[in-house]
## 1
Amino acid sequence: MLYRVEGIVIRSMDYGESHKIVTVLTKTHGKVGVLIRGAKKIRSKYGALAQPFTCGEFHFFRTTGLGTLNHGEILMSHHRLREELDLSANAAYIAELTDRILQDQEEGSGYVFEQLKACFAALQEDKDIDIVVQLYEMSMLRFAGYEPQLTKCIHCSAELLVDDVPKSFKLSATYGGILCQRCVHIDRYAIIISETAFKLLRLYTRMDLRRLGNIQVSDSMKQEMKTCMRKLIDTHLSVSLKSRLFLDQLDKLK
């Protein structure tokens, strides 16, 4: 059967002496594997289409399992995401996270595709890398059904008021939300969050990367938000990512 889909390359691997197999997140058919013959050759017609982070139109034949590319066109190459180390490392983390979380399924793939497409575009356009990555992480938590509860206490359902945040509320990754002052004792691993972090977390849950403007956040606040998102990701998505280890190594060199 011949498929014609818009997709983004989230993984690319060598196959034999001259071919490549790419994992493509499509807008309509979930995650698919496609063989691109001759992609490693210097004069390959479709070599550029096999590059990580490339958004393109893929025409491929598939009966079961792996598809074989018949024709393709690049829509957005995202070349900067492969050429600049910081961008490349973060794009690789986003791609690997997507690959590990999204199974070979169609349900929900349209939403993830649109968020990933907007995420790569934002990185390409010099939007704040930390903010873009954290917003995408929140979108993946939402997709997986683990968006944190931030309007009511996750334990007693008391309404959470921003004015009560300092030294009163804690983020519990284990329970998946905020604990009010009366309930903070139930999770000894819960972390105190600042008023600004609380507001940002709420903003993150409402944000769509396709409508991302410029958000100005201090370095210290981005670090606090990184701690919050890491705890939520590690607790609920339970994925070990090689790309994140590399990101951590880069951070130590800064």
Note: The CA atoms of residues 118 and 193 lie 28 Å apart.
## 2
Amino acid sequence: MTPIQRDTLRKQAEREQGQAIAPALQPLDRAMRYKLGADRARLKKIASMQRKAEVKAELLPDYLPYLEGMMAVGRGDEVLTQVMIWAFDAEQMDVFDRLARYALDNGIAMPTEFARPLGSWLAESVAKWTLRQIEAPTASPNAVALNPFALWLDEQTAHMDMHDEVRAKLKRVCGDLLANSHPAAALDYFEEAIRLDPHIRIKKRMTALREQLATTESPTSQGQAAAGATVNVTTTPPRPLQFDPSLAVLMEH
């Protein structure tokens, strides 16, 4: 797909989604839903998880102009959340971040086959993925890039109902991400995590942080950090969806 074709598709989606006619009755919307069904069927036939991730990465550029047009007029449906899930599985984190923020901000539902609501799925998926990056032999830059998103997600889902164990995983990851730069705030996250799930394995980390704070910070500075005075949750303003440059060649097919 050429840049001109992508721009044309985005504008058509924006035009159709902005009309009074129900989006599902619009020609482009019907075409994208048909494509989504065909792509799902294709993925179900693939046994290899690695190959599935590769195919999902190949599929993403076909949907992005359509989704940009949809989001430009404030709409969204399971096409958006399905592509969001594919972006996550393919570790295209810039795309995932953009779609996930939009979906959560606008209350977009997960695809019908998913039993859990969006907030719960995001919390557990992001927590597990980030923990894998943190514990990898060589830390991935993606874990650092996702740091603001994990903190933002914890804040945005605070009012949502989810299993305590799931919320504890996200709290624990937030603590891990802040342990080096904001140890007092990290300790607060760990304490919340262990309150929600007493079996979560962070007691040694908590002991180490308490010892570090006792020897390096005064009571005043500890109180300020614990209150979140130096921790800012980074938000990402709307921006065009972008890909890893290594996938650019895929966008020409």
Note: Confidence is low (pLDDT under 50) at residues 234-253.
